[in-house]
Design a protein that fits this description.
heterodimer, A: 414 residues, alpha/beta, Rossmann fold, 2 domains, eight-stranded mixed beta sheet, six-stranded parallel beta sheet, B: 485 residues, alpha+beta, Spore Coat Polysaccharide Biosynthesis Protein SpsA, Chain A, 3 domains, six-stranded mixed beta sheet, 16 helices, 25% strand
Chain lengths: 414, 485
């Protein structure tokens, strides 16, 4: 499918050159794939970099890749209307580019009013918004995790006040109304998972207006024979974690699970942690993780940060990928990456993780937040290595980036 | 908050210009010690490049650090985004004396605490007043570090503002009376009330100047004018306009906000302009450089109203659907001898906040008829009322009436000091003219009142003031009240 000459503007709340979050990467991949297909496409990414004196925009790489130097003035409402960026500079830019389709991968940091601004300035444009986590629903970083650490099953003004005592129930009511007012400017929503779609439908979005499209994988299938080979040579069973090291990704659960393994099992296990930003976490969390790392000793290797393009190579060297998040997740990048490399996964049994990985088919579920259960799963994998081969054979090809683009273009043009 | 920061910069950073021209600035605002533990509260700014969580390292003591946003510092330093600044709380075991050996290091910049000038806070709760957005995080942090934090004392973020001079005088008068004295009522009637009203009348005489900010084109012939006084929370402008602008019925409705607090005028001005640009919905803001109270603010707003019909509305009221305003208008015209029409007001959980009011004796306020809200907190779906029903009185939070009637009866009586009975008083004026008060049950609006800890006790002098205002109403309307209450 092609866009038959229609112009598309893809907007992201960050440029993956600076912020490697799933949303930024997904938006940029989509832009690059469309550009490669010869489509008339622009990419606008919000940035925290310093602009030329007073400028709202700057360019990156070429004139189709534009950075937007702005930020919210109200982080509770995601509002940005006290600065003139949205209703002056951005409006001017919209009128210069005149896109037929505007596909936003976020409103965070840009300002929620960006949706209404696009609708008012370009009444005929088709406005698409991809939802990447639960930010509109949940003030706790969009995690739908209560501030006491428990899972949240649905927002309500009173319950949200219980999480944030300094904010009134009325404030949460206003927040929801305000966000929904601007969501009314969106023609169609995209969700990378059915789970996230359902959460937004429960929150009041029209489910007929939300399509589920998984993030496309640039290389499609990259499984190498080397992977299979390696396993049988090795005495150790390698389990790997990929992602940010923060309290919601459940590294502590993984480390505690390793600590619980019986010694003979632990000797046969190698756990690699590929993760960045531990130094940016709160002091007490850093200490917890460091103390746990000391406790588990040689069984765990802390590898630090990695680049996206290194993932296939890193994955090919491991037997299992583990996603132990204690929040729901949406569609974690590491799952698609692992499946693309034919590496079976061990994941928490909740949300996007349990949707993307099927228990006993292409991976194994463990009870979320429960190190003992994870330890049992790891032990089983070590004692019965044939499980891995069975699961590996069941892994289906992941959605390729080109398939993903086609699915998007269907929505752009409908 | 903003002016505080400026003051701090002025007072504590000598040679402001020189110091501020430095790229990286660190300031300690407050220090507090409790049970051999110390909290240090301050902020770090880099004028050229964004800071990260690892931008600050503490040398000299084993400490814990919490980092949060300081929008007030961002604003007063003129930083382009909050990434150039953060506030921090630092805690360690020890005494304040150890601060002299403590150094804060930010990349290559060294900030010995001994060179800082800071205030000593009496309790951790006072320090938390400086944490605006991440207060819950800060509370948890301090609790985890073993501090004793009174969560209630800081639950409501308060901008500490000294009482206005007139209010202080009134407070002193009230301090001298005892509500339990047998002759309380007559003393109040004959001495306290005249004294207080003298102060208040002199204040009202000073209400002169006001300015109007017109956003968008003025409507040619508005049918209805909505007057909305703003108290502190000017983000309500954003919320109300977001809702009004998505209702086609509001095309010919004049919306007038009244801001009588000079401390927020500038921010309201900026916000109002942005709100207009995004929502493209015309409205006006009337600014007074004098705090006029509920009556004065409404009366000022009405003096700028051009519609024949008037809706007096609180800023924390939000529609539950479109089409409600014309429905109120129709109902107001159709009801027999209708003076004021109110609406059913509900909380965000769809329970009743207001469905008409009535006078009732209240043992907490002896001798005074209080405005009682029947059915408060009851699920609104349980109420089965006629679409429009007669009520004794209705709340000032939402009143629909003819402007001519409002003007004829002189609007709200400004002599009720700091509120309480203006709305029932206005209803009494209308009843006195032989007209009736109604409430609509088909029009339901959200009224987002704050949660209150205690319904009765809101401080001694405020309680006394309510009694005094109640006496004023009893005085003014003794015979009519005997008839209807």
């Amino acid at each position: 499918m092609s866009m038959s000459g229609k112009r598309t503007l893809i907007i992201s709340h960050g440029h993956p050159d600076f912020n490697k979050g799933g949303a930024e990467v997904a938006a940029y991949n989509l832009y690059n794939a469309m550009k490669k297909q010869g489509e008339d496409v622009f990419f606008l990414a919000r940035t925290a970099q310093t602009p030329h004196g007073g400028a709202a925009f700057s360019s990156r790489k070429d004139e189709r890749e534009i950075l937007f130097h702005t930020t919210m003035d109200d982080s509770f409402l995601f509002s940005n209307l006290k600065t003139r960026h949205l209703w002056q500079e951005f409006r001017d830019l919209l009128l210069l580019i005149k896109p037929d389709v505007v596909h936003l991968h976020h409103y965070f940091l840009l300002g929620i009013e960006i949706l209404t601004e696009i609708r008012n300035t370009l009444p005929d444009a088709r406005v698409i918004l991809t939802l990447h986590e639960y930010l509109a629903i949940c003030h706790n970083k969009g995690l739908m995790l209560k501030t006491n650490g428990k899972l949240c099953y649905g927002a309500s003004a009173r319950d949200c006040h219980n999480c944030f005592s300094s904010l009134q129930p009325g404030d949460f009511f206003l927040r929801e109304k305000y966000i929904k007012t601007h969501f009314a400017a969106v023609d169609h929503f995209i969700s990378p998972s059915h789970f996230l779609k359902q959460r937004y439908a429960d929150w009041g979005l029209d489910e007929n207006k939300i399509s589920v499209i998984e993030n496309g994988h640039p290389q499609g299938h990259t499984a190498s024979s080397q992977n299979v080979q390696k396993l049988h040579d090795s005495v150790k069973h390698t389990f790997a974690f990929f992602g940010q090291v923060n309290p919601y990704k459940g590294i502590d659960i993984l480390l505690k699970a390793v600590a619980l393994l019986p010694k003979p099992i632990r000797k046969k296990v190698r756990v690699e942690i590929h993760g960045a930003n531990l130094d940016q976490q709160e002091g007490s969390y850093q200490q917890t993780v460091k103390a746990l790392l000391e406790k588990v000793g040689k069984a765990v290797v802390f590898q630090g940060a990695y680049e996206q393009h290194e993932m296939p190579e890193l994955l090919n060297a491991v037997d299992w990928a583990i996603v132990p998040s204690v929040w729901w997740e949406n569609s974690p990048m590491v799952i698609q990456e692992a499946l693309a490399c034919k590496v079976p996964l061990i994941v928490s049994n909740i949300g996007g993780m349990s949707e993307k990985v099927q228990d006993g088919v292409d991976g194994i579920h463990f009870r979320h937040g429960n190190p003992a259960d994870l330890a049992n799963v790891i032990e089983r994998c070590v004692l019965s290595p044939e499980i891995r081969d069975e699961l590996q054979q069941n892994i289906k090809p992941v959605l390729s980036l080109n398939e993903c683009v086609t699915a998007h273009q269907k929505i752009y043009l409908s | 908050m903003k002016s505080t920061v400026k003051k701090i910069i002025k007072a504590r950073l000598p040679g402001v210009a020189k110091r501020l021209s430095k790229q990286r600035v660190l300031n300690i605002d407050w220090v507090c010690s409790q049970d051999d533990k110390v909290i240090v509260c301050g902020w770090l700014v880099d004028r050229l490049s964004p800071l990260s969580n690892s931008s600050l390292i503490v040398e000299g003591v084993e400490s814990e650090l919490l980092i949060f946003e300081r929008q007030d510092v961002v604003n007063s330093m003129g930083l382009s985004s909050s990434q150039y600044c953060f506030g921090f709380l630092l805690t360690f075991d020890g005494t304040i004396a150890e601060l002299n050996d403590t150094k804060l290091v930010s990349d290559n910049h060294h900030f010995p605490i001994s060179e800082q000038r800071y205030g000593i806070a009496g309790s951790p709760s006072e320090i938390l007043a400086h944490v605006a957005t991440d207060r819950d995080k800060a509370i948890n942090f301090l609790l985890r570090m073993g501090f004793d934090v009174d969560e209630k004392a800081i639950a409501a973020p308060k901008i500490s503002r000294s009482l206005d001079k007139d209010v202080q005088k009134i407070k002193r008068i009230l301090d001298g009376i005892n509500v339990h004295d047998e002759d309380f009522f007559s003393v109040t009637q004959n001495h306290v009330l005249p004294e207080i009203q003298k102060i208040w009348k002199a204040r009202i005489a000073k209400f002169t100047s006001s300015e109007v900010q017109v956003l968008g084109d003025e409507l040619e012939n508005p049918k209805i004018s909505i007057v909305i006084p703003i108290y502190g929370r000017f983000d309500f402008i954003q919320h109300q306009i977001a809702q009004f602008s998505s209702d086609n019925e509001f095309r010919n409705v004049e919306v007038i906000f009244v801001v009588d607090d000079p401390e927020i005028s500038r921010m309201v001005n900026i916000t109002a302009f942005g709100v207009y640009q995004i929502f493209k919905f015309p409205f006006k803001v009337v600014y007074s450089d004098f705090n006029r109270g509920f009556s004065g603010a409404n009366n000022l707003g009405v003096s700028h109203a051009r519609g024949e019909k008037l809706l007096l509305l609180n800023s924390d009221i939000l529609p539950s659907r479109t089409g409600w305003l014309s429905e109120l208008n129709t109902q107001h015209s159709a009801a027999a001898d209708c003076g004021i029409l109110g609406a059913t007001l509900i909380y965000e959980d769809d329970t009743v906040q207001h469905a008409g009011m009535e006078f009732r004796h209240d043992s907490h306020y002896p001798g005074i008829l209080m405005n009682h809200h029947p059915y408060k907190g009851v699920p609104v779906s349980l109420l089965h009322k006629e679409p429009v029903f007669e009520v004794p009185i209705t709340t000032g939070a939402c009143m629909f009436m003819d402007k001519s009637l409002y003007q004829e009866i002189g609007g709200f009586d400004p002599l009720y000091v700091l509120g309480d009975f203006e709305d029932s008083d206005l209803c009494l004026k209308v009843i006195d003219k032989g007209l009736k008060i109604y409430c609509s049950s088909s029009v339901r609006l959200y009224h987002l009142e704050r949660l209150s800890q205690n319904l009765v006790d809101q401080g001694d002098w405020k309680f006394k003031l309510t009694l005094v205002n109640g006496v004023h109403q009893m005085n003014k309307w003794s015979s009519l009240l005997e008839e209807i209450a």
